[in-house]
Design a protein that fits this description.
The chain is an alpha/beta fold. It has 4 domains: 169 residues, Rossmann fold, CATH 3.40.50; 121 residues, no CATH class; 185 residues, no CATH class; 206 residues, Rossmann fold, CATH 3.40.50. 42% of the residues lie in helices and 11% in strands. The protein has 26 helices and 18 strands. The protein has a 7-stranded parallel beta sheet, with helices on both faces. A 7-stranded parallel beta sheet has the order 14-15-13-16-17-12-18, sandwiched between helices. Strand 8 and strand 9 form a beta hairpin. Helix 2 runs parallel beside helix 3. About 11% of the residues have low confidence.
């Protein structure tokens, strides 16, 4: 297979503009991928910027005759693979190659939801009108925010107008309904505007709600099902790494069977899997469930609407219980109901069905019956006990499910298919919420619970401390894994559970001449960045470097506070346009920076990777400090405890090195690029661990002399 890979790679290279380039690292990687697939042996490849790693893994994968899933961390790479690289490979092969892009269900417009919103099926009525859930109460949407410019007047107070009829939110929903009638894929990425999350929630559904094609009136014309069908027939399926995590979390029910998985941007895999294999319970799930369930219950049935109100109230109770714990770990014992005097009393109305009999939860998902729960917190209590709220939630969700099941039996055969589909979505959402509550109640020592402060409301998160054992058990024994990145973190194999005797590790370098074209400057004379007096000195250093570069700077910061402080200090001291991460959405901001050669872009961690700006627009990348993770980050805190005395070298140092390398990697993006990476943290020149960090950065010429760096920058500027 090695010879065939080499010949095909050369054929593809010849088809590139200008005949392509001969890249030894790309050939070496492609041959290694081919061997790994043939031998069923996992491969981890560090391939520096400019290697052309996507072709290096796509060609041998396509030649293997096996189904391949490529998981990427960014939409930009997905688009590159689907619109550029895969068509090139398909054209070069002697046999046909089919490929498809598959996204999570919520990325596709739902024809059934569009039918309901647009009035082509049964019209959703307004809240309080005795009909369906209003547009702002879609099951996937968070509750309205008082300061949200697209929330209609009065929404935050509970008086929600119909956005399909009024307001900018209504305009967006109408645009989405019209677009749904024209699109052939239903893919949100095709939109020419970014819809508000509430508007999109009205015309989409999630995996937690969708009843499936056979139980949905619009199942035969479902965009998401069409995408899954195309993926099931494709030789190569391109997905987001989060979707692959969802596939593992579902027991393998999301993606078609495959023999090879490629993780591009492999440095992201550990954290994505930590997120995907966990649980997230926020106040919005209870509010949305209650709003969606209300129209399906008979107001005249005893206790029916009380059950809805009880679940809705859990949203505020959970919010109040989580707020004081924001950003902190939650001990496992705090998740169990606090029974006070130990009597084990409970509110029977919350846990029993008809005739006082406890009924099982989970919509045939095999969940256990709810456990007795404590009384509801007293009215006006400032901070409800989290364990008490979770105990109440189990019972109240079970009671609501009982009511929905009774309503289903009462409706019988007279119920319309559209109404049945809406109730199925509610039941599925309730079943998933019940399953997540059950998991929280039975955590083991390998999981950590913590409170994510979130952008709108806090949520309770449960994450595996170590994803290695899970991946070892569920993944590596069933597929051949190819993992690649420009920066492979130290210890990645062990942390991902790759079998030591079944994996090859390779570094093919980069074709770029870093030592000739780039300089790494460490500001060794600056005060320690952890001391407050270092900030004015840092601003002076930035001013001098940016001036020498003639603007053309990507200034990276480890916090919003540091970024804003630098902007405030330098806006009147520099003659160049200063763009801030808060000015525009990321794609528009990058484009504005690209179009003005003298501009500077100040940004935080979201711009340390996935930003590709070749050419003279970017000649200087500054990094305000070594990007060590926060000491109080809950999952990492748990990992440090496990690592003991070796925590710094096994947890903190690898993460900092990877992120530092990713930030430095924004500079040289083509063989013609030249410039400086300036790390404004003296620890990189003096600390005992500096060697481990410097080893992660591309092999640039190094300097601690600012005057030398300024001369180099002025020389680059003059060359233009």
């Amino acid at each position: 297979m090695t010879d065939e890979v080499t010949v095909t790679l050369a054929r593809v290279a010849e088809s590139l503009p200008g005949g392509g380039e001969s890249r030894q690292g790309q050939r070496t990687m492609a041959q290694a991928v081919g061997r790994s697939i043939a031998e069923g042996r996992h491969l981890v490849v560090q391939a520096g910027t400019g290697t052309g790693k996507s072709l290096a893994y796509l060609i041998p994968a396509a030649l293997s005759g096996q189904r391949v899933v490529v998981a990427t961390a960014t939409k930009a790479l997905q688009d590159q693979l689907a619109t550029h690289d895969l068509p090139l490979v398909a054209q070069a092969l002697d046999t046909e190659l089919s490929f498809a892009v598959l996204k999570g269900r919520s990325n596709y417009v739902c024809r059934q939801r569009v039918s309901e919103v647009g009035g082509k099926g049964e019209q959703l009525s307004l809240p309080g009108g005795g009909g369906g859930a209003g547009p702002l109460e879609a099951a996937g949407a968070e509750p309205p925010d008082a300061d949200d410019p697209l929330t209609p007047n009065g929404a935050a107070a509970g008086v929600v107008e119909d956005p399909v009829e009024t307001g900018r939110l209504g305009d967006q929903v109408r645009r989405l309904v019209r677009w749904a009638g024209d699109t052939t894929t239903g893919d949100r990425a095709e939109l020419d505007f970014e819809p508000h999350f509430r508007a999109w929630a009205m015309v989409s559904t999630t995996a937690r709600e969708c009843p499936g094609a056979f139980r949905c009136p619009s199942g035969r014309e479902c965009f998401a099902e069409d995408a899954r069908a195309r993926a099931a027939e494709a030789d190569v399926v391109v997905v987001n790494t989060h979707l692959y995590g969802a596939h593992l979390a579902s027991g393998g029910a999301v993606l078609p069977p495959h023999q090879i998985v490629v993780f591009d941007e492999a440095h992201e895999v550990e954290e994505v899997m930590t997120d995907s294999l966990g649980v997230d319970i926020g106040p919005g799930r209870f509010r949305a469930l209650a709003a969606s369930a209300r129209p399906h219950l008979d107001p005249g049935a005893p206790g029916a609407l009380d059950a809805v109100d009880a679940v809705s109230d859990l949203g505020e109770m959970l919010n109040r219980a989580l707020r004081p714990l924001s950003g902190r770990r939650v001990p496992h014992g705090a998740l169990a109901p606090d029974r006070g005097d130990g009597a084990g009393g409970h509110d029977s109305a919350d846990v029993t069905g008809p005739g006082g009999r406890a009924e099982p939860l989970g919509l045939e998902l095999g969940l256990d019956a709810p456990t007795p729960t404590p009384p509801a917190p007293a009215p006006g209590r400032a901070d409800p006990d989290l364990g008490q709220v979770l105990g109440l939630a189990t019972g109240r969700v079970g009671r609501l499910v009982d009511g929905l099941r009774r309503a289903e039996r009462d409706a019988g055969d007279d119920e319309s298919s559209a109404s049945r589909s809406r109730r199925d979505r509610v039941l599925l959402a309730a079943g998933h919420l019940a399953a997540d509550l059950a998991r929280v109640a039975t955590l083991d020592d390998d999981e950590v619970a913590w409170v994510d402060s979130g952008t709108r409301a806090p949520s309770l998160r449960v994450s595996p401390i170590d994803v290695g054992p899970i991946l070892s058990e569920q993944l590596w024994g069933t597929v051949t894994g190819i993992l690649t990145s420009a920066t492979v973190p130290i210890g990645l194999n062990e942390r991902l559970g790759l079998p030591p005797d079944g994996v090859e590790t390779l570094d093919v370098g980069s074709p770029f001449d870093y030592r000739e074209h780039a300089m790494l400057y460490v500001a060794s004379s600056l005060p320690d960045r952890r001391r407050p007096e270092s900030e004015p000195a840092l601003h002076g250093e930035l001013e001098a470097l940016i001036t020498a570069a003639g603007g053309r700077t990507l200034a990276l910061f480890t916090s919003w506070r540091s970024m804003n402080a630098a902007l405030d200090a330098l806006r009147d001291r520099l003659p160049f346009p200063l763009l801030s991460q808060s000015d525009l959405p990321k794609p528009a901001l990058v484009e504005a920076f690209r179009e003005d050669e003298s501009a500077c872009l100040f940004a935080t961690l979201g711009f340390w990777q996935g930003v590709d700006i070749p050419g003279r627009t970017l000649s200087l990348v500054t990094i305000d400090r070594i990007p060590f993770p926060r000491p109080d980050e809950p999952v990492l805190e748990a990992r440090r405890e496990r690592a003991g005395s070796g925590a710094f070298s096994t947890v903190d140092l690898p993460r900092a090195g990877t992120l530092l390398a990713q930030g430095a990697g924004r500079l040289i993006r083509s063989s013609q690029d030249r410039g400086v990476v300036a790390v404004l943290d003296s620890r990189l020149a003096t600390a005992r661990y500096r060697g481990a960090l410097l080893a992660r950065v591309p092999p640039m010429k190094r300097s601690v002399d600012r005057s030398e760096v300024e001369r180099f920058l002025r020389h680059i500027t003059a060359e233009g």
